[in-house]
Amino acid sequence: MKKRKKKRKLLKILILIAVLLLAAGALLWLRMRGGNRESALSANVRVQDVTRGTIRITTEGNGSIEAADERPVEAKYTLKIGTVEAENGDVVREGDVIATVDRDSVKAQISQLESSLSDLNAAIRSADRSGSSSLTSPIAGRVRRIFVHEGDLLTDVTAEYGGVMELSVDGKLKVEITPKTDLDLGDTVTVSFLSYEEEGTVFSEEDGVYTVTIEDDPDYLVDMEATVTDEDGAVLGTGYLKSNHPYLVECAYGIADELNVGVGDSVDSGTTLLTRTYNRYNSSYLTLLDEREELMEQLQELRMLERTPQICAEGNGILSQLALQDGTVIAEDTPMYHLISTEHFWLKTPIDELDIAKVSEGQVAKIVFDAFDDEEYEGKVEKISALGENVGGVTKYTVTISVPGIEKVRTAMSATATIVIEEKDDVLLVPVDAVQTVDGQKCVTVVRADGQETVPVTLGLVNNTEAEVIEGLSEGDQVAVMGKSDFELMMDMMQQGRSQFAGGEG
Question: Structural domain tally of the chain?
């Protein structure tokens, strides 16, 4: 047996030698051929035309796929789980069963809601439906602002201003100033506005802003500019009069019909501020109706759940952080699982500091996944981090790229993103291997019928394979392109022979 193995190994060595000799002979034959310009240059040089085309400069980075949209799904009711039918990492579609539910626990929830519905129905039957035609003041004070006009929808006014009127309820107005020097709380000052001069008191201070108060008066108007001076008449600051403790009067329904008060009027609790129309139902009654509508929706959901006691996926995606377990109780508002959307993902990749200025939001990125690198997909730059990270002396910035939902894509997959950062169309192009540097000048060897000529050129964009020629060449010129040297070719052949030999051993 050992002799056979030795013979087999010897035979392979002889075959390898024969292959190398044949390759060397073929290479020698190429060197000795004549009759064309390529062989006249050298066997490792080829001739290529100068063409017009598009050149692109790209930058690329590697990263891994992350969830772009992950949301928790909470339990709407307290229920007992039967059996869990799914697990973390499952790809689900809307309506897929995640777990079964104990039917008795659903019935218990239904019974509880039916009891609440009965109480709510009784409250609605006994409620006063009619709304008041008047809006009364809930507190004593002075009317300082009126936001509503006759014909206004009162709920709209409340939504915009926070109320329909503003009352001053502590008998004080205030002005806020920022003096250049510190003041003592309790100091007496003078507050001047229009033709009035009133004694004021430094009431409070916060972050250098002082509040000065004066007694309220029906003739004073808020939003008037006021000047505060000290006892020597020196100006401490200016500001605007405001209610010291403003109270906004809200209103939940109706249309303003007639205003019963004006700015500066003093009102008591219960004073009619305005009358209104379209007040068929009051707000308390409408609130009860809203509560009943919501409760009825919950009952409908639970009755459907009783017929089909299953927890189903609320959308398409990947299950994550599944918290359901066989036979356990899940409480209302407790997260049951997270759903990672498969509509799109993030690819976060570092981009070199030399290129980051040429990357912008909205740019297209070509995405290639390590798991299926023969396919190319298109993404879009969504965000560029301004925080760099220096690794090994090179600073890089994280670029977030949106990746479309692809059935084969999973989180944590590795991928490479390529972004075009510069591009020119309809320019003269030569292979980058045709360009040489002679005494600091970029040159190419132009091949003509009567010989060769070294021609200086001015280059534009240059990538790994092509160079843009701005000056020095014309379309259709032919240039010499350096290939591998004889030594490199021989080493390639020997390496191939060794690989074949190693692969055949055993």
Answer: 2
